[in-house]
């Protein structure tokens, strides 16, 4: 079903060096996998396996303590090697050594056309995939007890160096359609795509075309422009469209297949390309020989705006579509730095001469370039936040803990990622995504 064309004027595209070429590199996995509960925001894990247990791909490794129906499936069949715990016995990850011959738990093929919404939800719960669906308010992994007013899927990835979903979905359109049809049984489903998308003709959903700069692909921005969330309402969100493929594969094959196409990108990568990996796969095989190991680099699980720092021993995140490697910047020598015209540095305002160069691609590093300082009400957040909210006032209300004010200013509509660009341009150098996440967590406790 064709929806609307929605044009967004605010936002910012950051052109970085090292975009992945549309070719795939073949990887032989080293057999080490781990599922990380922190990848699922708002979930308190309860581990349901012990060290030495045998699991099949699709068997639960942990469940959500608050909603034990919500299981999280193992990406591979093999032996549980270790449950890694941190401070106060917090579960950091559950490691599984994969079998040479993979076995899958069989959940049975289903014809989604004849299923009810409840049957779809139960099938996703049983197969340990339901926890991949998020919700607004609070931007957390959702729970099955609340009926959403709508479901939003964004198939537009527009963050810097983001993996192109149109490339990933080629040849898997059938699974994508099945996943969308399944979601549409639960509630009215909206699909957000880019202007030149090949996915405009998808059935059973309302397709909205977003024309604008980053963060037009953020699912929260799309919700804000199509059907905003008011207090007391819940919408389910899938900002990571590969999850729809996971859902479609489950119904078309009866198996849990957590394979995703990941972009290996960034200015430090010698030949940026795509690779197929499973959720939770160790990154060491991907990263060996892919960059100059003598340099100081920052490896990011995700994109440069919202990803988390990791190492070669890290594991592919549940919602990660890019592994980005950029210079750390701790060895950058900037003699007379601020005096020079700085053609190689990117700036949002015209303090560097680089604005003359148009759409040049930059090799930015991980430095903050300045210390935290008082917040200046300059409207700089609003220029990169294409939502109907006052970003600076909302951040102030969160910092001061004024819950009534946060509600009036639209906190139920935002996710931390919506402030990623504002954090990038922020001259006060505040950690806006962290501030928003803490604010949402407090509110969630208050309203529980």
What features would you describe in this structure?
The protein has helices at residues 117-126, 165-169, 173-186, 219-226, 242-253, 284-287, 380-383, 391-400, 403-408, 420-425, 432-447, and strands spanning 2-7, 24-25, 32-35, 45-47, 54-55, 60-64, 71-73, 78-85, 91-98, 134-136, 140-141, 150-154, 189-193, 206-211, 235-238, 259-265, 273-278, 297-301, 308-310, 322-327. It is of the alpha/beta class. Helix 1 packs across helix 3 (173-186) and helix 3 (173-186) crosses helix 5 (242-253). It has a seven-stranded mixed β-sheet with strand order 1-14-13-12-15-10-11. It has a six-stranded mixed β-sheet with strand order 2-17-16-20-18-19, with no helix packed on it. It contains eleven helices and 20 strands.
Features:
11 helices; six-stranded mixed sheet; 21% strand; seven-stranded mixed sheet; 448 residues; alpha/beta
Q: What share of the residues lie within helices?
A: 10-25%
Quaternary? single chain
User: How far apart, in Å, are the first and last alpha carbons?
Assistant: 37 Å
The spatial strand order of the largest sheet comes to 1-14-13-12-15-10-11
A few lines on this structure:
The chain has helices at residues 117-126, 165-169, 173-186, 219-226, 242-253, 284-287, 380-383, 391-400, 403-408, 420-425, 432-447, and strands spanning 2-7, 24-25, 32-35, 45-47, 54-55, 60-64, 71-73, 78-85, 91-98, 134-136, 140-141, 150-154, 189-193, 206-211, 235-238, 259-265, 273-278, 297-301, 308-310, 322-327. With 448 residues, the protein is of the alpha/beta class.
